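Notebook B, p. 112. Complex prediction, attempt 2.
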Amino acid sequence: MISNRFALLVKKSIYLLWFLLSLCSILGIVRLILDTDALSTLNLNIVGGVVVSLTSLTFIANWMIEEIQPQFGQFVFALFLMLFTGVVFLFFPNQGVVLPDLEGEVTPILATLSLFFVLAIGSGWLGFLQLMDNPALNSQSAVKYFTALSVVVPLAVLAFFVIYTITEGSGVITWRFISQRSDLMRGTAGIFPAIMGTVWLIVGATLLAVPIGVGAAVFLTEYAKRKWIKQLVGVTADCLWSTPSIVFGLFGYIFLVPRITGHSTLLAGQIILASMLLPLTIATSTEALISVPDEFRSGSLALGSSNWWTIRTVVLPSAVPSIVTGVLLGIGRIAGETAPIMLIAVTSHTTAPKFFSLGAPYFHLGALFREIDALPYRLYSIYKAGVGGSIHEAWGTALVLIAIVLLFYGLGIVTRSYFRRRRGW
Amino acid sequence: MIEKLGVNLKYFLGFIVGVSTAGLFLLFILVKTFNIYLFLISLLGILLGWFFFEDQTAKVLLFAASTSAGAILLLIAVFLLLRGFPAFQTDPLFFISGSTWNVYKDIYSLGPMIWGSLIVTCGATLIAAPMGIGAAIFIGKFCPEWLRGILKPAIELLAGIPSVVYGFIGFMLLNKAIMTYFAIPNMGQFFAPAIILGFMALPTITSVAEDAIDAVPDHLEKGALALGVTKWQAIKEVTLPLASSGITAALILGIGRALGETMAVTMMLGHKTKYPSPLFDIFEPGESLTSLIASQIGEASGEAVDALMGAGLLLFFMVLVLSSVSRLIQSRLQRRFRRG
């Protein structure tokens, strides 16, 4: 039973670690009370204390359930470590709080603290696992609340981000801000070119990616007989989907840009965004086509129509809602991509791409070969120029961007739930 | 006779279109020109084919479409290899593990950036893994059906917020808050982007892990319940072990996402291309592979571009390995349940 004993040892040393962490923060707070000058330690200790108390919560719960009594040897060990850390906190005052010079010299305590953070989060997670393992806790309600918490926290963060952006950005949003370009002479801000740039990027990427992606999905589900073909395409689509966006940018920079005009163009951006949208389109369309019942196909084939005719008139139309949903969600994803277009399509302070005109040629293909502005890039360039002056413009841009993304997501989700309810099979 | 002519015509047309399209792509890739005549020939050929032999043309076109993803991936790999390889050529060990990145002295090594990526990714995983799996368990097993319909898209939405917005909000709120609260003199530490990245990687982990939990056949858990265990025991002893490989795949995928995330990291890191000292100090400004590329490629020239391409190559293959391992695990999981 060596492994069992080893597990127990690990378990107990984790408890010890918590013990130490909580003691450290308590000592720190004690020092704070004794030493009124240490005002700037306050924040450090409070944050540390919060982390520690969160982790020790699980510790205490475990302890109370299992009634583990610390052994004498461990107690001595703990005392030793406690003394050591206590000495650091108590007798080297201001180690952690003296602001280092701006070259960024690091104080030992700050480094130790970061180690503690990693340990605390890691041991907290281990403790959580152990708590889940505890036979006394098998009533499911506790687990339910624990897991529910891990849904609530990210959603709360999301809600906070969105609401914060709305409160900061809504003041800037005027009709002028949305419908005109920045006027440097008058000093007014406007993001119309960026909005139009993003719109055209989305339009081009969708027009390129959807036919190809849906076509690939049709081939995979209706024509491909061998399994390895499906698997191969699935794997490549997966790999393409997880390829970092900056790699797409680099690829466009070394492949597309020299081949199109030599400088940034709208077309290059559209192609790169299309290749980012493609794997998602393939995946969702494949799923949509698979979910079309086989009776549809055999019914049509029994009437004497060809394979392709069946696909065109029966299979594709019944899969359209799911495909549309997937594409809408995908557009929501690519609308905010910055890294890929940064190198290949955008520049700041330009006009909106102009494809149509009332005058003679009516349609200008040349707009494809011009640089554009895009919302995510506008936000990034404001950040890069230093947010000082145009901070409100940045929040406004962020708000419009979030609104566009949310719009596509909302449309996608509504379509999905609508057709799911309506669909009979 | 006419039938035979039709068949011959079909193959002839197919040949013409095939050759002209291949020529079009080859010219575009190798000579960097877009040959309008070849394009018109293939377009005309496809239209003719569509008009006379719709079924076969459709099949060929669909096949061509299905190769697109692979072709793009191949192109990315080949061109990154071509451009990124020179950086590895002179001294690959120094390039990967050295400690200096100095544009002025033309000394390039990615050690600090790899370490920075590692720190940020580990931090993000520490946050995203427990919460992501917990959320997957809750959505998959505990929450009622109507709530599930709300929670799943809501978690998806978390992945939908553009990373540049995450970066901006993180920079404006988190970076400044941490700077003030911890009394740290610098803004772009590893700590803040790790937290934000955790929330960005979470939806990936949740959705894949939830799929894995969902894929476990219901009757196994019900069998356990019938033996008198509680629901949590059934989940813990039956569902989670069976879904464990899928959950692992989810984690790997999440790690890949965090590793490749660019804008948020670029906006929140301090762009100091040196190792933190001591190594585990997460409150020092730093740089990751992605942020290095994003922040320097615009102004780079000469050897620096090569080095950045090398960084991109490294990043691409790291993520490629991660995602293919994840995919492998997932497909094995699927096969297992189909058989069982």
